[in-house]
Please model this.
Amino acid sequence: QSSAGQSEGGDVLALPAMAYRQFEWNQRRTQLDPAPWLLPATTITDDSLLVGNNLVDGEDERSARVRRAIDGGPRALTELGVEWVVVEHRTPGELPAWLQDQTPQFEGQWVSLYRLGDPAPADRGGPPVLPVLLADLLAVAITVGALLWLLLPIGRVRATS
Model:
């Protein structure tokens, strides 16, 4: 069970789209968004950083794709595997206009939760399987070879002069 305890497979988008928050309950101190640690599903936060008036791109390609799709509305997000949107209230940042047309599944003092619909299978942008598997096999082979070298007599033979 995932995605806020309701269904399988959909990810959660935390809005407003920013990695850092300032909550009243935290005396408005800047902190990382707690949603990824608190929610039982993959939670997407915007990992770009606003420095002065410049937006510095983050490292997560999927986060960047989701950030660009936010203005496209719910359908654009579900095509990227997003099923849920959690809105963290009383924290700086803008919300997309289309969110006003959505009905929250939960509305609380600090957060609201919206279900966008069934998501498409998400491309999580992980490493390709074959190179990782080959690297793992090579590491095992090197380890086994080193152990055999130490244990077998050939590893103990030394040149005499």
